[in-house]
Design goal:
Organism: Brachybacterium paraconglomeratum
Radius of gyration: 38 Å
Subcellular location: Cell membrane
GO cellular component, one term: plasma membrane
Strand content: under 5%
Helix content: over 70%
Largest sheet: none
Distance between the termini: 59 Å
GO molecular function, one term: transmembrane transporter activity
Number of strands: 0
Order of helices and strands: HHHHHHHHHHHHHHHHHHHHHHHH
Keywords: Cell membrane, Membrane, Transmembrane, Transmembrane helix
Number of helices: 24
């Protein structure tokens, strides 16, 4: 009897328990070190994507430089005879081109040395040598800051609309009307020094706000798509400028050339480094625009409404925020900032109106805002980078003969890579960062399949052994009145009143032992496990 009791106890419920005990337990999360957490945060950050986007863009640009270099192509013709000539030519072509770009954008080392030697030969020493040499060496940096000033202000205006969920393409038109208004006030009126400058800047802001507000009104009142309306307003502003420069009001006595009179001295932005440099006080307005963007979108009620409508218009409407009114205000504020950029450009850099006064600033501002993730710090850095590429590219073209179009290619490639972070992470071997739970989900599903199979195999083997033992001892175990068997089972009943081992839930007929993962109430899998498996499957399907 004791043998039967032990066999039954080992063959039914305890058998299943033993199989479950043999299954691998779920892995515990390992404690991450500070270095591992730091590396993970860097891998997931946007900074890594931006840096690697520039790296890949410059690598592709290097290939284009090599292809365009005639000397490199000549050395490649006899590459197998003398490979060192080709490799040297490739290295010199790329390094000289990018070295010239750095000289034209940040610091002109040869110019610094040349001026220093000239001053020393003239008998100068100490600061008499240092200051003129620094002025020559840092001149490219001042040009980069000058180009970046209106670009940063215009990009701040674009960021307002982007963060509100509106894709404003009207930067060029808003900048043109802002420049026209500020320029006209600058050369057509005579006002006191400070007042004249303030009125001209205010005129540019109001003109840009009105021009952006037109698109906002069309969006709010008639539901017109802001992309189409702002693009059309760009062309209207462009041809309006062409027409104005052929009228007496804008050209004055000079009717032969489509340019306006120069802005009065009282309306110009003061130069920061004297007449030898173009850097002007608009640089402070660019810094103020970045601060204003931060305050407006992060600390003001109006900015909260902008972000709420951009995130979820339906929820914003339920909260009492009018999406139509907000769309009008968004485009008006964005246009005002872009109009300020046009005023700063004409009052500080150009000093007069021409047909090409806007240049590519309006469209470049869109790229800068997207590159800077519509944040103030990102916009400032992206504006400086794009300005450096522009000024350095011109010097690279004149000094090394590399086409200026290459700079445009590099800018487009940078935007392309930044717009696709998964592509960048895949190229650098960090594809799993974009799918952080895929490996863990696959491991859980594998365990969910393997554990029931292991449990079922162990339960089936134990049940078969118990059945064999019962058949062999049948006459003794199943006495005429069953008293002996009953006594054996009563001896195994736990003291706490729990179910005896022989009364454990039987294993299914197939021997899979699925009851180890079933819910005792309805015999189905626990809700937490069913929901987890379903969610994992849906995420992997996506």
């Amino acid at each position: 009897m004791s043998t039967l009791s032990e066999t039954g106890a080992a063959g039914s419920a305890p058998g299943v328990g033993a199989g479950a005990a043999d299954a691998p337990p779920p892995p515990e999360e390992r404690a991450e070190t500070a270095l591992a957490r730091t590396l993970q945060s860097i891998a997931r950050s946007d900074l890594l994507v931006v840096v690697m986007s520039f790296v890949f863009a410059f690598l592709i640009g290097s290939v284009l430089i090599v292809i365009a270099d005639e000397e490199v192509r000549t050395t490649l013709g006899y590459f197998f005879a003398r490979p060192s000539d080709a490799l040297t030519a490739i290295w010199q072509s790329v390094t000289h081109a990018y070295g010239a770009m750095f000289r034209g954008a940040v610091f002109d080392g040869p110019g610094f040395s040349r001026v220093a030697e000239d001053v020393r030969e003239a008998g100068g020493s100490g600061t008499y040598v240092l200051f003129p040499a620094l002025a020559a060496g840092l001149r490219p940096l001042t040009e980069t800051l000058t180009v970046a000033t209106p670009l940063i202000i215009a990009a701040a205006g674009m960021a307002v609309s982007f963060r509100a969920g509106l894709f404003n393409i009207g930067g060029t038109g808003q900048l043109i009307v802002g420049a026209m208004a500020a320029g006209y006030v600058g050369f057509a009126f005579q006002l006191p020094v400070v007042l004249h400058l303030l009125v001209a800047l205010l005129a540019g802001v109001l003109a840009g706000g009105v021009w952006g507000g037109i698109a906002g009104f069309l969006k709010a009142r008639f539901g017109a798509n802001e992309v189409i309306s702002t693009i059309m307003l760009n062309w209207i502003a462009t041809y309006l400028l062409f027409f104005a420069l052929k009228t007496t009001a804008f050209t004055g006595a000079n009717q032969s050339q489509p340019t306006s009179p120069s802005v009065g001295e009282n309306a110009t932005l003061p130069l920061l480094l004297g007449g030898g440099f173009r850097l002007h006080a608009g640089l402070f307005l660019a810094a103020g625009a970045a601060v204003l963007l931060w305050w407006l979108m992060s600390r003001s009620t109006l900015g909260f409404h902008f972000r709420a409508v951009g995130s979820n218009p339906r929820a914003a409407r339920v909260a009492g925020i009018s999406p139509a009114r907000t769309a009008f205000l968004v485009l008006a504020v964005a246009g005002a900032l872009v109009g300020l950029a046009g005023a700063v450009h004409v009052l500080g850099t150009e000093r007069r109106l021409t047909e090409g006064v806007a240049g590519n600033i309006g469209f470049d501002a869109i790229t800068v805002a997207l590159l800077g993730r519509s944040g103030p710090v990102g916009i400032v850095l992206a504006g400086l980078l794009f300005a450096a590429l522009s000024t350095g590219g011109r010097f690279m073209e004149t000094n090394q003969g590399v086409p200026l179009d290459l700079v445009q290619v590099i800018q487009v490639l940078v935007v392309l890579f930044i717009a696709a972070p998964p592509l960048v992470r895949t190229l650098i071997g960090l594809r799993r960062i974009d799918h952080p739970g895929a490996g863990a989900r696959r491991a859980r599903r594998t365990r969910a399949v393997e554990v029931p199979a292991t449990v079922g195999a162990a339960a089936g083997a134990s049940t078969a052994a118990g059945t064999a033992g019962t058949t062999a001892d049948g006459p003794a175990a199943g006495g005429s009145d069953g008293s002996s068997s009953g006594g054996a089972h009563r001896a195994d009943v736990p003291v706490d009143g729990g179910a005896p081992p022989g009364d454990a839930p039987p294993t299914g007929a197939s021997g899979t032992g699925t009851h180890a993962r079933q819910d005792p109430s309805d015999g189905t899998a626990p809700a937490s496990e069913r929901g987890e498996d379903t969610t994992d499957a849906q995420e992997d399907h996506r």
